[in-house]
Amino acid sequence: MNEKDLYKLLQEKLDASVEMPDASVWDGIRSKMARRHRMMVVRRVSFISIAAAAVLAAGLFIFRGDEVTTLPSTPSIMAESILPETETPADQDVIPMTEQIAGITSSGVTAQQVKPISRPTTPDLDKLAEIPPVISDEVVKEKVVADIVVSDNNLVADQVVVQEDKPATGPEIREWDEKDLDAILGTEDPVHRKFKKNTSLFAISSNISQVASKDGLIADLGPKYAPSELGTPFESQSIIPFDDEPQFDIPLSFSLQFKQAIVPRLYIGTGLVYTYLHTQYSAMINMEQQPNVSSQLHYLGIPLHLSYNFVDRPRFDAFVSAGGMVDKCIMRRYVYGSTDRREKVEGVQWSLNVGLGVEYWFVQHVGIAFKPSVAYYFDNDQPLSIRTNQPIQFNLELGLRFRM
Amino acid sequence: MKKQSALTDTDLNDLIQRCLRRDVIAQKRLYDTFAPKMLALCIRYMGDREAGMDVLQDGFVTVFLKLRTYKGEGSFEGWMRKIFVNEALMVLRKNDALRYADKIDNVPAASIMQSNDDAVSRMGAKELTALIESMPPGYRAVFNLTIDGFQHDEIARMLGISSASSRSQLSRAREWLQKRIEELY
Lengths: 404, 185
What we know:
CATH topology of the largest domain in chain A: Porin
Strand content of chain B: under 5%
Largest interface: A-B, 29 and 42 residues
Order of helices and strands of chain B: HHHHHHHHHH
CATH class of the largest domain in chain A: Mainly Beta
Number of domains of chain B: 2
CATH architecture of the largest domain in chain A: Beta Barrel
Largest sheet of chain B: none
Strand content of chain A: 25-35%
Number of strands of chain B: 0
CATH superfamily of the largest domain in chain B: RNA polymerase sigma factor, region 2, helix turn helix motif
Order of helices and strands of chain A: HHHHHHHHHHEEEEEEEEEEHE
Number of domains of chain A: 2
Oligomer: heterodimer
CATH class of the largest domain in chain B: Mainly Alpha
């Protein structure tokens, strides 16, 4: 027999060899498949969310000019706004700049009707300083010009030329007060703006706890509640977790929240929060040991919190928030072996949380928010989960905000 | 676990299609059909039952996840075997169990094995498996891969060694096997 034949003989003999695996192997395969599937779903949702947020952010960034262009920012419009097309009596009531522009635009004045203006490509600040103030007592106007220099050089150049061409004897130049400037630069009082015009916020966010594993940062911090089966239907009391090291997946929350300003900078918020908690552990079920019990808990919560904007800019807010939440487990699902059980859980889960967050507004109505927070979950006889094992949880909330 | 009867090609294709749709019952049937053979393969590579079952578990997860890549070319069992062999080698590599002795006495293969042909023919699958399981891990991997029809170039690539090392390890394995057979028979 040559070498090849020998190996063939060995292969034939070994191919006939079979070994029966333990039942736990299939349980393990199912558990791993379920975990991979969940991770895949989370990855897909995260990817889609990030991609959508990126596209939205890019789109809003590109088109964000809409908010500012309610006031003139181009030379021709500026010229239109300042050159008087009709005689305005000096004693006439001052018309706000925005209204005047709207009036001019709607009356069909075009750039061709406006006296041509030679505009320097770069502003000469020294030259600007030499120009005597047209209305010497207009301190506010000088301040306005100086501010514009900093913010929009082309605008200054246009305004200077206009002043040279046509000394401002009417009320037009007087209209350049700080409110107009705020409107141009988007620095108008944000509290005033938000509180007066926009009092509500919707937030869509996801929440990923960073300490969701047994090796988490605060795994040993705070109390650990005994996993309770109280408040559950009688049948499920036969599931008794006994694992010293249950495996907790990252809890995921999705929320739709609403907050309402009650006084400037202070908001009260509430909404609806869905949370998914998954735990894998060993348990005694009907007096039999099950090494891989997959427990899936679906909670629906109603938060109530107060938040205070300690930084309140037109595009950027920073805030602290504190509040509480009541969660109701709407479904508990146990999977072990080939068994799939769904049950209701009685009772509710109470928690308190404090957080620190920031919001950035791309445009007046849409922004993103980032809020790390700490939550404490009380012992309310809830089934075993990361919340009963590590009642103090660090959360990270990322989301989109829509201002009404 | 019930022992499953052999599947026809049609049944197998149907089972694969259902597995692709994440049909748990079909996955279980596929598992029941192939797990006993694959476990024997895993044990042969790993050297013990517990480690073999771990590889079997990970291997089936990979099979279900990669099932879409099976294009129906070649036998399905052969495709599965490659996955399980690969899983076993990954674990052995991770456990640093594939280190080899550097020096090797080049013993002519034929002279070693021919004297034990009859003994090998007489041995049952269980005895042979037990014998291979007791081989040192380094030799065992090369010997198993050779039995499973891989060429030295492929073995070298799979184990991250040179072809010459693969040949020398196989020679060592044969030498070791000859001694053991002589002791037993």
